[in-house]
Every structure is written in structure tokens, then in C-alpha cells.
Amino acid sequence: GTDISSDNNVIGLVSDSSTGKGIPGVVVSDGYSVVKTDANGVYQFEASRYASTMFISIPAAYQVPLDANKKPAFYSAISRNKVNRNDFSLTPLTVSEENFTLIAIGDPQVSNANEINRFKTETMTDINMTLSINQAEGKYKNAYAVTLGDIVNDTPNLWETMKPTMENVQLSNGTYLPVFQCIGNHDHYAGAADDRSATSNFNKHFGPTDYSFNRGKVHIVVMDNIVCTRTNGKTWTYDAGFSKSQYNWLKADLDAVENKEDKMLILCCHIPFRGGANSGGATMNKDKNYDETLALMREWHEAHIMIGHTHYIQNYINTKYKTKSGLPV
Fold first, then answer.
1. SS3 of 39, please?
2. Measured between alpha carbons, how far is 127 from 136 in angstroms, rounded to an integer?
3. What is the DSSP-derived secondary structure letter of residue 299?
4. Per residue of the chain (329 residues), what is the pLDDT tens digit?
5. Quick count: other Cβ atoms within 10 Å of Cβ 256?
């Protein structure tokens, strides 16, 4: 019954598939605004003119919705100059997923068809086999995966071939592995005019670059921390960090989570949260909202950052920032 006067309004219903009733309190966002569904499961907000997608932050009590290709279906496109009606139907979990497995996949960075085939037959096959063997022994339950950027290597012609390697990932127990996606510097289209439009290829294939979801007592946030500065038509130079609007969105998303002091936060990005050339240069941590982001992590029981980019393994402990439990980020 609300009068909608804007041409950029997004409205919809988030419902429980088992009852048909709306689910209250579900976080809905376009990566700029953050709202919650009302008592009837209805949401409405005016989308940013920069937003091309909107998403729901999947509640912990519900399954991750999957599309026909068994990839996460938590977002919808936003069309301008019309009222967007985007509904979501969620299936409740029969058993709590406080015990779940998160697989982080760093830098596939494929440059040609042979490397795509290797990623499919080696990397994804190994992940599948590892999960299947361990799940048969009662371990690695309720598995999800997230890439950590650089899915392709400045090779936008390979998106269509690369995307199916992370779809329809069926495990031996018959379940599917949902693979969430994070954007890296080599995933930003170098033929674009600016940082914002450089994500259009990623948006087309995987949806939003900044979003969140919940599993068990864990809130997982995925963000684009590449600040593109200059393109030569083949690749971007870049700084690392978040824009002010990204930080504002992150703060609003985290503020919407209840009982943070009893929960874990996992932030998935591409470039490390520390200095050095591999972290995006000298502007790191100067004006890119990293200190502010790390400060937000103090409000949680435990906080982790999952990162790709450097092509080697390191466990970096930031003792400057400690969570409510006393554990460092």
C-alpha cells in the first residue's frame, strides 16, 4: 500500500518455503543501503544509482539458496527507471550449522583454456575429493567455498568458460558445494573507464562485489578492496582499501548483526591488510579505511580476514586489534 514515487525503488518479500510466510529481520542491501524485512517479511528501499544488483544476507537458520546451476542465488539485478520487485524464498535448515566448513580458494588467475582445464580437473577435483573423503568420516560438514579474487588474469574473454568450473559441484554424499565469489585486481576489466565500471564483468557473472551471509554463529562478509587508479588497456594499477561509501556500507551491515560479542566475523577480500608493494603501495592504510575496518572487528568475539593476492601462505596476527575475547584479528 506504499506509494512509490522513485524510479529506483526495490521492493520484495523474503519468505519461508515451508510455511509461505514472510521472514522478519532479514538484511537486504544494494551495497550502499542496508534495511531489514518487516514483521511480514517485506522490504523496500531506494537503490543507489550506482548499484546494479541487490542481495539478501542469508540468515543462519536457512539453507543457502541455489540456482539451476547450483551456485548461490542470494542476489538479483536492479534495473533503472522502474520499480524492481525481487522476492526470495528460503528453506529452513533441519539441523543447526554451527559446525560448518569454509574453503578459501586463492587466485585461480587463469590465462588460457589449458589453465581453466587444470583448475577444473586439479583444483576443483581435489577440493571435491578432500571434502568427500572427510565427510564420509564425519568431518568437514556443511561445506561452502569462497574465492579470494583474481579468478581470471586480465582475460575477460575467459569468464564464460571459467564460470562453469565452480557450478554444479556435487559431492559424493549428493550435496552441492556453493561457491561464493570475491573480486581481485585482475578481475577488474581494463577496458573500462573507471573503477566502478571495471566491475561490470564480475557483476554480470557473479553478482555483487560487496555482500554478506551467515552460517551458524559466523557472519561472513565479502568485499572488493581494489582501488583502480590507471589502466593501460590490458591491466589496472591500483591501491588497496575501501572507499568511504564501502566503509559506511560495511559498518551498517555489521551494525545489523545482533550479539556480535558472541559471534565470529570472517572478512574475505583480495589484497592483504598490511603494508608493502604487494598490498597496493604506499597509500595503504593512509586514507583507505583499513584502520577503521579493523577497529570494527574489535566488537566481535573473534575475527578473521581471508586474503589472496600474494600467491604464498602466511598467517598474519595483528596484535594491535583484539576482539572481545582478547584474541587478536
1. coil
2. 14
3. G
4. 333 344 679 999 999 999 999 999 999 999 999 999 999 999 999 999 999 999 999 999 999 999 999 999 999 999 887 889 999 999 999 998 999 999 999 999 999 999 999 999 999 999 999 999 999 999 999 999 999 999 999 999 999 999 999 999 999 999 999 999 999 999 999 999 999 999 999 999 999 999 999 999 999 999 999 999 999 999 999 988 999 999 999 999 999 999 999 999 999 999 998 765 555 555 555 668 988 999 999 999 999 999 999 999 999 898 999 999 999 99
5. 18
**Cell reading at 117:** 582445464
Radius of gyration from C-alpha coordinates of the chain:
19
Residue 172 and residue 135 in contact, taking contact as beta carbons nearer than 8 Å: yes
The answer to whether the CB of 241 falls within 8 A of the CB of 280 is yes
Give the up-direction half-sphere exposure of residue 114: CA atoms within 13 A in the CB hemisphere. Answer: 0
Phi, psi values for residue 245, rounded to 5°: -70, -35
pTM of the model: 0.94
10 Å Cβ neighbour count for 242?
21
Residues β-bridged to residue 76: 54
C-beta separation of 110 from 155 below 8 A: yes
Cα distance between residue 289 and residue 240, in whole Å: 10
Return the residue matching grid coordinates 531489514: 36
